[in-house]
Amino acid sequence: MEVKNLITDIWTKEDLKQFRDEVNSGSNYSGLEVNQRADIELGREEWQPIGINRKLSFMGSYNGNDKKITGLYINTSEPNQGLFGYVRGGMEIKNVHIENGEITTTAHTAGGIVGYGNNIELSNCTFSGSVTTTGKDSYNEGLAGGIIGIAYAGKYNKISNCINNGVITSDYNSCGGIAGAVVNGKIKWCINNGEVVGYNRFIGGISGVIGDKAYASSVQVEKCINYGKISEKSSNASAVSGMVGCSFWKGIIQECGNIGNLICEGEYSSGGKKSYTGGIVGLLYSGHVIKQCYNIGTISAQLNAGGIVGWRYSGNVGNDCYYLENNTTVKSGSVTKSGIESSETDIKNLINVDIWREFLIQDKTPNVNKGYPIFNWQ
Question: Is the pLDDT of residue 217 over 80?
Answer without folding.
Answer: no
